[in-house]
Each structure stands twice: as C-alpha cells, then as structure tokens.
C-alpha cells in the first residue's frame, strides 16, 4: 500500500481508511471541472460479445476481426492486438482448447473475467507479466467481497462458478474459496465499459478506481477511453476533499436510487441528496420524475399516495385515482412494451420500422395519460422512436423527439450541474439532426451546448470530441454563409 500511496501522491491523491466507509480516495491538491483526477488500465477486462456482434479482445474494436485459431472464442482486429494480449490469453486459450467447442461458447463474461483474473495473478507471480503500484493482485485482494452480507443463493452460485473455473483451468493448487470470493468482488467492483456514445462495450476491473465511494451528488464522473477508465472532476474539488462518484444511473427518485444501491451494493446512501427522503421537496420531485398525473377535466396536477393507501390523490383538484385504475393502465403499457421490444429486435425493413414506431407511439399515448410530462419512463419510449425514425431517415421526426428528451434530461441531471454525458449526447444528436435538416443556426446552438458539457466529461483530445469540434466548425461556416457574414 506504501507504493500505491506514493504513486497516488504524484497525482494529488491519497487513500484513507474510515471506519464507517472503508477505503476512500481523498485529494491532496485542488481539482477543477474537466481535469483528470486519475486514469487506470483494467487489471482484467472482457468485451461484450454476441452471436452477431464480436469485438477485439484487446481494443474492443469491431472491424477486421479474426478468430483465435486455438480457442475459437476470442477475436482480434490485428496482429498487434493479438501480440499485446498473448501472454495472458495463452493460459486461458490452452484451457479453453481442451473443452468441447459447444461448451466454450457458453462461457459467460463473469466466468471469463474471473478466469483471466487468476491467469493474470499467476503470470504476475511468475514475473511473466510485470507489476506496478497500480497494477498488482494485492489491490484485488484489498477489495471487499461482502461474503458475510450476501444471501445464501448468490453465495451458493459463486461456489458453483468457482468449481467450474477450477474444472476449466485444471490447476491443482487453485483455491476455490478465493475464486468464489473473487466472483463476489467482481459483482460489487467491476465496471461496465462504455464508448463515447454510452454503448456497452464490456466489463473491466479497476481496483484503484473501485476504492472510491458513492454519492448521488458526485463531484466526479467516470468515463472510458477505449479500455482505460478516466475519472474527471465535474466541479471544483478542494484539497482534502473526498473524491465521490456515482455507482448507479442517477435517473430516478430517491426511493428508486436507494433501492438500487441496497440491492446491488448492500448499503443505504446518506449523501446530502438522500437524507432529504420523505421531505416535501423530495416527495414532489419523485412525483414529477416517476409519479402519476391527474387527467380530471384537464387538471394535470400531481398524484401522491393518500393516507389510506388505497389510491392516489391529486394535490391540485383533490380527485382520487384508484390503484386498480392505475394498475390497468400499467398492464396495457407493459403489454405494448413487450410487443415493441420483440418487433424492434426483428425489424429490418421500411415497413417493420414503421410498425415499431407505431407501437412506441401507442405506448407514448398511454404514458402521457398516466405519467407526468417530465416522467423518466417516457425517455426509453422516445429513444425507441428516435432510433427507428433515424433508420427510416425521417430526420424531422427524430429531431422532434430528441428535443423532448432534452427537456427531461435537463430536469433529471440538474443536480449534476448539467455536466452529465447523457445530456451532452442528446444535444450532440440534436445538433447532428439539425445540421442534416439545414437548420445551421439551431445546430450551432445545440452543438455548442454539447461541447460545453462533453469537454468536461470527455476532455478535448479524444476522437469523438475532435469530430464534435469539427462538426461545430462546419455548422458555424454554413451559418455564416447563410447570413452573409464573415466567419
């Protein structure tokens, strides 16, 4: 840990151990919005692969892929990527190659991630792969497994998965208890890796990053550049302050966030945002984001659960809406959502895209009758319409719904000082569509807002941001030409 403290000290950070929190990351200097606090390569990672979508094991690219001739389940985009991974992959490749081919393709990402974890640990112990202060198995050992807190069912599952790992690797000295604990550590500490468009690429374990604690009012945000995890400040973090990030998507009410944290991470958040649970402002905000609306004589008031718990009463006109009435509407929405999901998965033509959009619009109609205008449940519906409208090249329709999502994201992420990438990406999409439609003035406004947000979260040097800057410059030039002004 002394080597780690020294390495972190050079970055303006230190690890502290607090009784009520465990290991925490604190600053030893000031950090400002957009500044990189720390970056880390994964100790191990695996791409998210499917039958129709494979990725390079080294860089997560999805083009020019060639299958490993040994195990036939891993892909690389170049000889450079293959060579960079060979020392680690050689061990698992030997093990996979001994399995029946049909069984190899059933190895799930969590199992493969844990196999790679133990392969890397073994290779580092043999000094085949180098170690460093921020890249060694002792950091994995320092992570908490919560084995005494988890239920019997996941504990039993981890034990069975450990047996499977032992069966695959065939190492006589493997410690099955340690393997089972590592499965639990992965469940609590592994991060989902996303690209700049927030598309799921894979899973990775970043031990030092995992030392950070959660807050629903975080002062930093974790993004990924390829496989590298990059933590940036989204506000001024003074010297001596704790670096806090969010473990979950912050879309949702306090009750929803608390439920997610308790189920996934076994703790109750006590951040400044969560301690307001049950207070009027928090109840009102929850009703706006997730609650029902009154439609009596176009009242449009907020519905809150009444004291008898037999329905929801409008805070404006006093009308009671029964739970049965709401449940019936929710069942109709759920039925349509199932149909839309199935239709979207198989859609491949002009007609089927139209059918998917029609289903999403039917869902939207019911949701608007049931929920408030800024309800978060509308977002996936609108995104479904946007995605399929773009497949039809109906740019006007896509733009109209993109603008609707921005209004909700602004409300949802207002506690994030409007620096959340989801909001920035909506402005980016909006600007692209406005550019296609020849709305240069609006495109400049939207892309400028996207830059203001995303340069804080993504920096300025990534390929995505360079494309965004180029797009903004292009629209400014077009706007100048239209207005007859110098640029």
In short:
This protein has helices spanning 2-9, 79-97, 101-104, 109-125, 137-141, 152-169, 176-189, 254-265, 280-290, 323-346, 350-370, 378-391, 395-412, 421-436, 440-458, 463-483, and strands spanning 13-18, 22-27, 36-40, 44-47, 66-67, 75-76, 191-194, 200-205, 213-214, 220-225, 228-233, 244-245, 292-293, 302-305, 311-314, 320-322.
Q: Which percent band covers the strand fraction?
A: 5-15%
How many whole angstroms does the radius of gyration measure? Answer: 25 Å
| Poorly predicted ranges | none
Largest sheet: 4 strands, antiparallel
The number of helical segments is 16
Termini separation comes to 55 Å
Q: How many strand units?
A: 16
Question: What spatial order of strands do you see in the largest sheet?
Answer: 13-14-15-16
Structural class: alpha+beta
Into which percent range does the helicity of residues fall?
40-55%
Could you characterize what this model shows?
This protein is α+β, with helices and mostly antiparallel strands and 487 residues long. The chain is built from 16 helices and 16 strands. The mean pLDDT is 92. Strand 7 (191-194) and strand 8 form a beta hairpin. Helices cover 49% and strands 13% of the residues. The longest helix is centred in the last third of the chain and has 24 residues, at 323-346. The strands form 6 sheets. A 4-stranded antiparallel β-sheet has the order 13-14-15-16. Helix 13 (395-412) packs antiparallel against helix 14 (421-436) and helix 14 (421-436) packs antiparallel against helix 15.
